[in-house]
């Protein structure tokens, strides 16, 4: 079956790492039709719009989308793109790799972050010069949808259950509802859960990440805690993510446009390539995904490595080394 894959490199190193990921997917020799589209700062400079209508429509109709990063316009680009695929969960694996200097080499976590509401629902007001407010939105339906996904996810991963991170002791209504909805769904499905307050989680994950596996959390907590986990595993150049919806999904490295290194051909393409692995897995090609992951792992362990990992190789060297090791 042929799959249409939208490719939106965006700005900065998005223009460097996204083509590297596409080259790896092309090397799989599968029936993928790649369609390129523009978004971000540079297209806004030309046209006034950071996310052209045709890019939104392409993401809303393609089987899957591979996105790089956008600069100042990130919120104007990525939030609508997540909406275009009706994404209700952001899947963020954070694991350490042999050969990479990590603060906590035993880390192997996956965050399942609610992707539509919480404090990112956009209900903010400036009431007076002195007073600004934010309404935190939590719904039973979105919390249950996330929990249903989490139950399927732990079954696929061969895990017993998941950890629910929240702050229901303070946010009794919103996180109270989140906690109740998520744990009820898990109990109905026979999936074990434990609960950790989000502030305590931040400490515990730093001291002993090995005690956690799959972590289910509200939107803001998932954003912050997954970036914290990035710090435990050796940096942003390694972390892929998926924004999953009921019928399509968008894949992107967790990192941004890295203006400090953009244009020099030295960005680490691993996060983008691993996002490509999540994409092919989402489309049902588990073996191809495993092949990409083991090729990336072999290159991380044996080199070549980009400067962020202490090497002096370029993006293209890593791309070619990964392609050489694909089986
Ligand atoms: P960043 O992730 O772009 O960079 C942070 C640091 O990590 C920099 O020192 C950068 O060189 C390094 N880094 C990131 N990815 C790397 C890679 N693949 N290889 C080697 N080094 C890498 O975050 P920053 O600097 O906070 O943001 C820069 C721009 O990116 C901002 O305009 C921001 O709005 C945007 N951004 C966009 C995102 C998106 O489109 N999803 C996400 C995060 C930031
Ligand atoms: Mg973030």
Descriptive report:
- Helix 1 links the parallel strand 1 and strand 2 (32-36).
- The chain has helices at 14-27, 41-47, 53-61, 74-84, 140-157, 174-188, 198-207, 219-233, 270-282, 286-302, 315-325, and strands spanning 3-10, 32-36, 64-69, 89-95, 108-114, 124-126, 132-134, 161-166, 192-197, 214-217, 240-244, 249-253.
- Helix 5 packs across helix 6, helix 7 (198-207) packs parallel to helix 8 and helix 9 packs antiparallel against helix 10.
- It has 11 helices and 12 strands.
- It starts with a strand and ends with a helix.
- The model has no long low-confidence stretch (mean pLDDT 96).
- By secondary structure, it is α/β, with parallel strands linked by helices.
- Strands 2-1-3-12-11-4-5-10-8-9 form a 10-stranded mixed sheet, with helices on both faces.
- The protein binds 1,4-dihydronicotinamide adenine dinucleotide and magnesium ion (MG).
- Magnesium ion is lined by residues 223, 227.
